[in-house]
């Protein structure tokens, strides 16, 4: 893992603005994951139209980029969009792009509730990666909580049963999502020492749009109706807001701390899934979800003792 810049470089970019408190960072984390629930809901609705996954992410990236440029102009902060490490930003944005493609695929094969339970493996992997690369600590109690959370995922998937809320294509896509998101989150804890959250968000959108539209030209581009276009715009806006809140949170508190608010998506996602598709989680999903929630809450409490990277060496 390459460590970029120093804590002082962040202060140079921020000027005299005070640092966001830990409570404020938690608020940004909660807002970010809630916006992502709305993004995933839009993706699932659009996916039901049969639009190719690469076309969905192409417009996702485009509208994300447009939203961030508009934000920079309206807020009179265009310099925040400027990258300091273009190469590393592009590589990180490729992780975002891969994650987004797999999200589109997974949501076509899984209910929204099961999708969130599966991606909740990410905080477990993030805690492991943070302990290795960010030295955020992993004692035996946290390790036991991680195993309990993993058991919850297995129960929620219940591979021994004949009837499930998804198929193995969705499961495999979720596993790739977890891997890309976890690496991205831990790496972002380092990148945000020199890269503004606005710049990270903009580059994610640009790279995703370039690859997506490139595939549209090489493979096929389906025509868009006014309804689908409106859904794509809402998806991009929600994703931009969620990503901006996420990077702001991860810059001012520990990666393990932010990751635990991933679990709020289980509540909001289940609620949206019921209101929109009338999906009701089965007993295995509920028991697995409770195990995951308990594991996450324990790790979140332990993460309060971790010092944010911007305050470290």
Largest sheet: none
* Distance from first to last alpha carbon: 15 Å
Low-confidence runs: 1-17, 307-313
Oligomer: single chain
**Secondary structure category:** mainly alpha
Tell me the fraction of residues in β-strands, as a range: under 5%
Radius of gyration: 19 Å
The gross shape turns out to be globular
SSE string, helix = H, strand = E?
HHHHHHHHHHHHH
Arithmetic mean of pLDDT? 80
| Structural domain tally | 1
The number of helical elements comes to 13
Which structural traits does this protein have?
313 residues; mainly alpha
Summarize the SSE layout with pairings.
Blueprint: H1 7-14, H2 22-47, H3 53-74, H4 86-107, H5 112-119, H6 121-134, H7 140-157, H8 168-191, H9 197-218, H10 226-252, H11 255-259, H12 264-277, H13 283-302
């Amino acid at each position: 893992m390459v460590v970029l810049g120093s804590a002082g470089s962040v202060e140079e970019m921020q000027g005299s603005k005070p640092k966001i408190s830990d409570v404020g960072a938690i608020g940004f984390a909660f807002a970010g994951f809630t916006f992502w629930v709305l993004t995933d809901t839009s993706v699932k609705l659009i996916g039901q139209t049969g639009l190719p996954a690469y076309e969905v992410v192409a417009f996702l990236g485009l509208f994300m980029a447009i939203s961030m440029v508009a934000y920079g102009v309206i807020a009179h902060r265009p310099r925040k969009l400027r990258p300091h490490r273009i190469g590393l930003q592009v590589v990180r944005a490729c992780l975002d792009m891969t994650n987004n493609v797999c999200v589109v695929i997974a949501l076509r094969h899984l209910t929204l509730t099961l999708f969130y339970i599966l991606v909740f493996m990410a905080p477990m992997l993030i805690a492991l990666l943070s302990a290795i690369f960010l030295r955020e600590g992993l004692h035996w109690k946290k390790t036991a909580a991680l195993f309990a959370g993993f058991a919850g995922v297995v129960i929620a998937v219940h591979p021994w049963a004949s009837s499930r809320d998804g198929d193995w294509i969705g499961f495999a896509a979720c596993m790739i999502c977890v891997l890309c998101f976890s690496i991205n989150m831990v790496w972002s804890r380092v990148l945000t020492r020199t890269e503004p959250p606005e710049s990270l968000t903009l580059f994610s959108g640009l790279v995703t749009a370039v690859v997506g539209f490139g595939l549209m030209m090489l493979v096929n581009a389906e025509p868009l109706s006014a309804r689908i276009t409106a859904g794509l715009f809402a998806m991009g806006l929600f994703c931009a807001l969620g990503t901006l809140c996420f990077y702001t949170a991860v810059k001012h508190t520990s990666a393990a701390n932010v990751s635990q608010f991933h679990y709020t998506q289980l509540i909001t996602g289940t609620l949206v899934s019921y209101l929109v598709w009338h999906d009701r989680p089965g007993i295995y999903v509920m028991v697995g979800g409770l195990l995951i929630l308990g594991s996450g809450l324990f790790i979140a409490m332990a993460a309060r003792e971790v010092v944010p990277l911007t305050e470290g060496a």
